[in-house]
Every structure is written in C-alpha cells, then in structure tokens.
Specification:
Blueprint: E1 14-27, E2 30-43, E3 47-51, H1 58-65, E4 73-78, H2 89-99, E5 100-104, H3 115-125, H4 130-143, H5 159-172, E6 177-181, H6 189-204, E7 209-214, E8 225-230, E9 233-239
Parallel strand pairs: 3-7, 3-8, 5-6, 6-7
Antiparallel strand pairs: 1-2, 1-4, 8-9
Helix pairs in contact: 3-4, 3-5, 4-5, 5-6
Length: 250
C-alpha cells in the first residue's frame, strides 16, 4: 500500500459536510423532491453507514456529496473545499479524481483489462508515473488478497474477486473520501464479509471517511455510525462501537 500519508492523523475530523441539501427530479409534469433539506457529515477514520428503504434518497445523497450530482439547494464542504458545488465542472472532476474513491454494486471494471491494469490505469489518470503506478497497484491487489490473480480479466474472476479489484483500485489512490453504494448486495455472505472488512480497514488504517449506502442490516456491526434516511430526510444518527469480529451469516 502507499504510505499512510497525513490523512491517518486526521481521525475524527469532519471530512465532508452537507447543509440543507435539496434535490428534485422532474419526470414529465411531476417533480419529486428526493432530498428534503439534508444536513450530513462524515469523519475521517469512520465507517458511516447510510441506511434506509429503497427510494429514500441514499444514492442521491452520496452522489451530491461526492460531486457527481448537483443539488438544487444547499452546500457541500469537502476536505479543504468550503463549497464543492461552487467549483467549475473541471475542478469538481479533478477533486473527485484526486480525493474520492467509489465502489458500486456492479463493480464497474473494464472488461478488457487485467486486474493489475484496472488499477494502474486509474493511477495513470491521476498522474502517477508508470513504475510507481505498477508498484502501488500490486501492493493494493496484495492487500485485498488478489496477489496471485492480478493478471486475470474480469470474465475470469468471481463476483467477490471483481469487487476486491474495484476496492484495490480505490485503495491504491489512497482516497480521503470513499463512497460505496450497496457494495455487498451482489455477493454471498463470505465475499460480502471480505468487502466490508476492507471498507473497515480503509477507515481505520488509512483514515479515509468511508460512507457506505446499504439496505443490509447485517453490515451495521462494522459501522462507527449509522444514519437512517427515509423519504429524503434523516431520521436517526447513531454512533456505535464497531465489532471487528462480526460475521456475516446467510
Ligand atoms: N435521474 C433521476 N430522474 C428521476 N428520478 C430519479 C432519478 N434518480 C433517482 N430518482 C428517484 O429518486 C428517488 C430516490 O432515488 P435513490 O436512488 O437516491 O434512492 P435509494 O435510497 O438509493 O434507493 P435504492 O435503495 O433502491 O437504491 C427514487 O424515487 C428514484 O426513482
């Protein structure tokens, strides 16, 4: 893995904070308000779970927090940016590339690239020199237990292995903000457990602020904080002590 960098020193500090987020979608003649004035923050070193029923606005919230989807109202302060959505589109893209990692249910891997190439390509976009990218990519793949599989393409990997490649790609960047949207929902219990443990480690060992959207109540055991959202509003914000020995049974 890359050196732990200064971010691990920031455990407990707020990494991203939103105020008064409102997001509406127009479909035909109707407008639905999906986020209804959401205040939210997530801290370095925390695994923050965002839970709530389908359609409650979870994915919309992380898209607005991470610079993927512009809210209609409200602001997002992220790392040293007091208002992310005041930046130009190019600067928001740059911010995401430099500081954010994403893990989605569908893995989002390039079909033609090996596991190693998936990771080096992203580091290359970030400006890493070839040899360094390779070395960081190998270390990240070893960290997720894929050292022996790094020359396989996605079609030759299981679902759990593909999600681990996606996590290695994300960890190699050493992102300060890590957003995961239903990262375990396509996986069986055993692979889901590997993935949630890696998210836990990204928070504890790398000091990332990990924000994980999930339906799955079994993941709560690993969380430092659970935020429940329903119908575009935060209903509950609970701090807890994670259980490092938790298991995901079927
Ligand atoms: N681009 C869009 N255009 C119109 N409506 C949208 C759009 N994106 C999301 N929605 C609607 O906004 C609501 C919230 O969607 P969102 O994906 O944030 O919910 P969620 O809590 O993540 O749901 P799930 O758990 O099912 O993924 C849903 O009713 C959805 O249909």
């Amino acid at each position: 893995m890359t050196p732990k960098s200064t971010i691990s020193g920031r455990h407990g500090e707020v990494a991203v904070a939103a105020e008064g987020l409102i997001k509406r979608f127009k479909t035909g003649r109707t407008t639905i308000e999906v986020l209804k004035g959401v205040d939210f923050d997530a801290r370095h070193g925390d695994l923050t779970m965002v839970m709530g029923p389908s359609g409650s606005g979870k994915s919309t919230l992380i898209a607005a927090l991470s610079g993927l989807l512009r809210p209609d109202e409200g602001k997002v302060a992220a790392l040293d940016q007091p208002n992310l959505w005041k930046l130009s589109d190019g600067k928001i893209d740059r911010f995401r590339l430099e500081h954010c990692g994403f893990i989605f249910q569908g893995f989002n891997l390039f079909p033609a690239l090996t596991a190693l190439q998936q990771v080096t390509t992203v580091l290359g976009y970030q400006g890493a020199e070839k040899g360094e990218a390779r070395q960081r990519a190998k270390a990240a793949l070893e960290e997720v237990g894929l050292g022996p599989r790094m020359n396989q393409r996605p079609s030759e990997l299981s679902g759990g292995e593909k999600q681990r490649v996606a996590i290695a790609r994300c960890l190699a960047k050493n992102p300060q903000l890590l957003f995961a949207d239903e990262p375990t929902s396509a996986l069986d219990g055993e692979n889901g457990q590997v993935v949630v443990r890696l998210l836990r480690r990204a928070a504890t060992e790398h000091g990332a602020a990990v924000v994980c959207v999930t339906h799955d109540p079994r993941l709560e055991a690993w969380a430092d904080r659970i935020i429940r959202i329903e119908d575009g509003r935060i209903l509950e914000d609970q701090r807890r002590t994670p259980d490092p020995n938790a298991t995901l049974s079927h």
